[in-house]
Amino acid sequence: MCTTCELMMAQANLGQAPQERGLDEYPPEWKEEFQRLSITIFTLADRFQDQVQIRIWDPHSLQGMLKSIRYGVRRYPTFIVNGHNKLTGWDSGLLEQQIQAAVEIRISAL
């Protein structure tokens, strides 16, 4: 299905959301990490709204592999803040601090 159709079906509760479809094929620990990452991303998006741009790169894709090489990423999840601050792991407090600092620097530069 196209993305629009999938989103409409998910909003109408006519099946699993697109991001959850296919998760049953993976081990339980991978599903848990996916849920944790989703929660982290949605929390950051709610908190910072239009002050930040969130990009997610699949390390199995060509772009993801190139980004991993460029930033020296060897473990996941890894978050790159402002193009140079690299955080690996699940410390959401530290991640929020680094994002807040980057937002403040950007605002003060204006």
List the helices and strands and how they pair.
Blueprint: H1 3-11, H2 28-48, H3 62-71, E1 78-81, E2 85-88, H4 92-109
Antiparallel strand pairs: 1-2
**Taking strands numbered 1, 2, ... along the chain, how are they ordered across the largest sheet?**
1-2
Number of domains: 1
In quaternary terms, these chains amount to: single chain
- Principal-axis shape equals globular
Cα end-to-end separation: 43 Å
Strand percentage, roughly? 5-15%
The secondary-structure element order is: HHHEEH
Number of E-state strands: 2
Outline the structure in words.
This protein has a two-stranded antiparallel sheet. The longest helix has 21 residues, at 28-48. It is 53% helix and 7% strand. The chain has one domain. The mean pLDDT is 85. It has helices at 3-11, 28-48, 62-71, 92-109; strands spanning 78-81, 85-88. A hairpin with a 3-residue loop joins strand 1 (78-81) and strand 2. By secondary structure, the protein is mainly alpha-helical.
